[in-house]
Amino acid sequence: MNLALLCPEFSALFVLLVLMTGEMFNKDFSHKRAAPTAIAGAGFVLLTLCFRFNAHGESFSGSFRADVFSQSMKIFFAAAVIPVIQMTRVFFKDRLKHPGEFVLVLWSALIGMFFLASANDLLLLFISLEIVTLSFYIMASFMKKELYSIEAGLKYLIFGSLASAFFIYGISLIYAAAGTTLFEGVRQFASANPGNQLVLLGLVLMISGVGFKIALVPFHLWVPDVYEGAPTPGVAFLSVGSKAAGFVIALKLLFVVFVFFESGREALFSVLAALTMLYGSLGALVQKNIKRLFGYSSISHAGYLAIGLATGEITGVTAVLFYLIAYGLSSLAAFLVICIAGRALESDRIESYRGLAVRSPFLGGVLFIALLSLAGMPPLAGFFGKLLILLGAVQGGYLWLALLGAALVAVSLYYYLSIVKIMIAEEPLNTSPIHAELSSKIILAALAGGIIVMGFWQAPFYTFAENAARSFF
Amino acid sequence: MIVALPWISLLGAFVMLFIPKTNLSAQKWLTLSCCGISAFIILFLTLQFDTSKTGYQFLHRYDWLPSLGISYQVGLDGINLTMCLLHALVSFSGAFIATSGGERRKEYLFFYLILTGALYGVFTVLDIFFLYFFYETTLIPMFPLIAIWGGKNKGYAAIKLAVFTGAGAILALVGLLALYHYAGAQSFDLIRITEALKARPLPLSIQAWIVPLLLAGFGALSSFWPLHSWSPIAYGAAPTSAAMLHAGVKVGPYLILRLVIPFFPEGIREWSLWLAGIACAGILYAGYVAIRQRDLKLIIGFSIVSHMGYVLLGLAGLNAVTLSGAVLLLFSHGVATACAFGLIGHLSDQTGTNEAEDYGGLSARAPFWSVAFIMVSMASLSLPGFSNFASELLIFIGAWNQFPLAVGLAVFGVLITAVYILRMVQKVCYGPVNQKWPELRDLRTFYEKLPFILLLTALLLFGFWPQGLLQYIQPAAGGLLS
Q1: Residue A357 and residue A352: Cα distance in Å, rounded?
Q2: Do B67 and A463 touch (CB under 8 A)?
């Protein structure tokens, strides 16, 4: 057993312990120090990951595996958590007695994602997924005095537990057939018996569970309400971290374990992708609440990502990973602005964003960049992500999917630009300037800079994604 | 030097962010110098350009993302040299108008510089990825330019422009990706794809469906009928210098020349009859609609759609003569349109109205303005002596053998143009002086007059000496077909 492989996980656990101890023994910690400590902790974990990036191997008799892909995803999760922590700072300020508790729950979700990225066994996969999902149940209903938050939590709980039940039932069926839960063992059994009905049924059940996490269309019903009601930091991590976690599971299931399912995967995910893109884009057109709109838009982004799953090959997986990074940067920037503006405007209605660019040119500028990047406009990160996805679809022969995706980009342009229009061109109701803290400004500037750099100079990010994708082939 | 062209203005836009809001003169000089330096570089390159050689000159190539075959490659041939000259002229003249005042000036100039830089990018790069990249980047500044500083209906106009051109762009992207895939060169490099396709042309069955995708995509941006409906509204609402740049410097037809005609020769030939028909329909329809308009900017807006019909007819002709005519028309029409928008903008910035009825007798009131306006109108009418005449003549002569009926209808379109242009001139410049605007000023200072002097000089110069441009265009246009 090679415990040194778990270095990043141990360092994350260590940060969790520090946070917990601080929370227990220091009165001011929750308000003042929890968030800075967690940000510093994320930096520490990132540093560990950088040093241990090339430490590859398996541990716990093969159920834990560290490779380029898992380490890359851990870097993604740990980096994504930093703006979310900043959001908790802004969002819960003067609202809660112990905002530090939210950071604790957030951090436990992060640890779940770490194990998920390294899981090489169906059971470990399920357990780490449950750590993530349980943390999100708590985060969604964290504002326990607000009706919408409770509704969000309850909805997420009901749908989520159903999905978990599907997932674990699928695992049990596969165990019944293959007699093992290790990826390697299941893969050998499934490839040798591609027609085994228990395996197929189990696989379909597991895909449904994953579909819930990434909000693919028949499993998407929870999304708009949860996005509208849950506290914004939770929503942000849900839309970036949890979606990425879902794609990690999907990639592992489709490209490591059930490799035999190739033709089924292509047919299934191309149809799901088309439905998801259509539903998300059309649903977003009529929204009045900005968080709800992001719910629908996150559904439509899941559709684009699913195109990458359908096309497969190294190009498809690279496109998925690149798109996730671009989507993560843009979403986090947008949600941080929504957090700050939401506190100042005391509303999440799109209408209340009138004249935001005049009241705070900085926030308006960052939201402008983030929205255009989500819409897939060059020279921003989202553009190259969409390009890679469409290129994969064209190369894989899914021309209809590429055309549908392209047409829906135009639709998404409409709803993103409607927000931009309200923000930059309409007269503000109230002209008092909106201030953001320096720490928020630094993080926003870094995110916006990242979006632009990634749009212009794609090579390092592309290589990063391609190297990670190579772990599957 | 050619590598630096787009980056001068983009860098200028970045610097603009750090200039204080109140420091108007620094903002002005930054904008003027960015546009001016780029224009001088283009002028210098034009003088260096060797007309006896065929192919691209001033080639530079840097690997950008080798695993996908993306490279930053720049170079000029006669066609994009002409487009660069047009853009240099219009953006430099527009800069004078953009810097002359208005609200939230700093942000305006920021977006203006991004637009200028992105357009230079489109006209200098020779890599499909970067062509598309810069082409869609022009959308980003256009949206706020119209949405914030526009006239009536600005929100609607901005969204309509963005959605139409965005949809066109992304459809074209699918076509370009298909081209990349089927060319099999694993490269976005324009020259390599040309070579690969020369060795192994695409089968007609593939060409026949990629061509409409690309034509629809680029056609939406070129405001070809029936994909034009965004353009009169957007140009009617756009602030003066933005309208000059976006309406004058047309990217769509250039991309058709660069990406469709050389790569899909048989595919476009299949569609050429349709294109000629669409071109005629556009010329006549838009001309007829223009007659009914009362708003000066809308008249010019529909006249753009109508003139784009001539360009499309030139593209559909598919021989060296019509293609040269189309490029020359892009140049002359661009200059004339920019000039017209600049002149109308000068009036409406003072009065806040574009209605032709609201003006009258301006020739007595504003003689310099009226002379310029009448000259531009005559250029739009393609009166001999302006370069529009030479270009339309080339298109008609070249297309006569293939589409005699279409040419006949297009010539009739010139008559329609005469109707609305002359009526507009009559209403605005002659008749009784309208007493509504006692304060209305002519173009007085040299700073105000210079942009129009530059634009009109170019129209006249190449009207009397079309060979001055055709010596660059013709070899390149012939090269597209071989």
Answers
A1: 12
A2: yes
State the burial class of residue A180 (Cβ atoms within 10 Å of its Cβ: 0-12, 13-18, 19+): middle
Chain A touched by B481 (CB under 8 Å): no
Burial status of residue A137 (CB atoms within 10 A of its CB: 0-12, 13-18, 19 or more) = middle
Collect all residues with Cβ–Cβ distance below 8 Å to B319 and sequence separation of at least 6: B398, B481
The answer to whether B267 and B203 have CB atoms below 8 angstroms apart is no
d(CA A30, CA A24): 9
Residue A218 above 90 pLDDT?
Answer: no
Whether B353 has a pLDDT exceeding 90, the answer reads: no
**Chain A residues with CB inside 8 Å of B149's CB?**
none
Task: Provide DSSP, A371-434.
Answer: HHHHHT-TTSHHHHHHHHHHHHHHHTT-HHHHHHHHHHHHHHHHHHHHHHHHHHHSPPS-----
How far is CA A39 from each of CA A44, A46, A107, rounded to the nearest angstrom?
Answer: 9, 11, 11
For residues A322 and A328, give the distance between their C-alpha atoms in angstroms, rounded to a whole number: 10
* Four-point Cα dihedral A354, A355, A357, A358, nearest 10: -160
- The phi, psi pair for A119, rounded to 5°, reads -60, 135
B contacts of A395 (beta carbons < 8 Å): 181
Q: Is the peptide bond before A379 cis (omega within 30 degrees of 0)?
A: yes
Distances (CA, A) of A382 to A215, A280, A330, B52, B114: 19, 17, 8, 44, 19
Q: What is the pLDDT of residue A110?
A: 94
Query: Do B155 and A421 form a contact (C-beta atoms < 8 A)?
Result: yes
CB B308 within 8 A of CB B380: no
Residue B41 pLDDT more than 80? Answer: yes
> How does the average pLDDT of chain B come out, rounded?
86
CB pairs under 8 A between A and B: 91
Q: What pTM was computed for the model?
A: 0.92
- Calculate the dihedral angle through the C-alpha atoms of A371, A375, A381, A383, rounding to the nearest 10 degrees: -160
C-alpha–C-alpha distance, residues B482 and B477, integer Å: 9
Average confidence score pLDDT of chain A: 90
pLDDT-based confidence at residue A168 (cuts at 50, 70, 90): very high
Q: How far is the C-alpha of B120 from the C-alpha of B42, rounded, in Å?
A: 10
The DSSP secondary structure of B441-468, one letter per residue, reads ----SHHHHHHHHHHHHHHHHHHH-THH
Chain A residues close to B132, C-beta within 8 Å: 378
CA separation, residue A205 to residues A130, A340, B208 (Å): 16, 40, 43
| Mean pLDDT for the stretch of residues A159-164 | 92
Q: Report d(CA A405, CA A390) in Å as an integer.
A: 8
Rounded Cα distance between B253 and B271, Å, is 16
B99 is written with which tokens? 């810097």
Tokens representing residue B310 in the block: 């001539």
ipTM above 0.85, yes or no: yes
Q: What are the backbone dihedrals phi and psi of residue A65, each rounded to the nearest 5 degrees, phi first?
A: -135, 130
Give the separation between CA B130 and CA A441, rounded to whole angstroms: 31
User: In whole angstroms, what is the distance from residue A104 CA to residue A88 CA?
Assistant: 11
Asked if A128 and A115 count as a contact pair (C-beta separation under 8 A), the reply is: yes
Chain A contacts of B174, Cβ < 8 Å?
A: 390, 394, 399, 402-403, 406
- Residues in chain A whose beta carbon is closer than 8 A to a beta carbon of chain B? 361, 368, 372, 375-379, 383, 387, 390-391, 394-395, 399, 402-403, 406-407, 409-410, 413-414, 417-418, 420-421, 424-426, 458-459, 462-463, 466
Q: Residue B203: which pLDDT band, with cuts at 50, 70 and 90?
A: confident
Provide DSSP, B60-116.
EEEEEETTTTEEEEEEE-HHHHHHHHHHHHHHHHHHHHHTT--TTHHHHHHHHHHHH
DSSP annotation string for A16-34 = HHHHHHHHHH-TTIIIIIH
Q: What are the distances in angstroms from CA B457 to CA B379, B385, B460?
A: 12, 11, 5
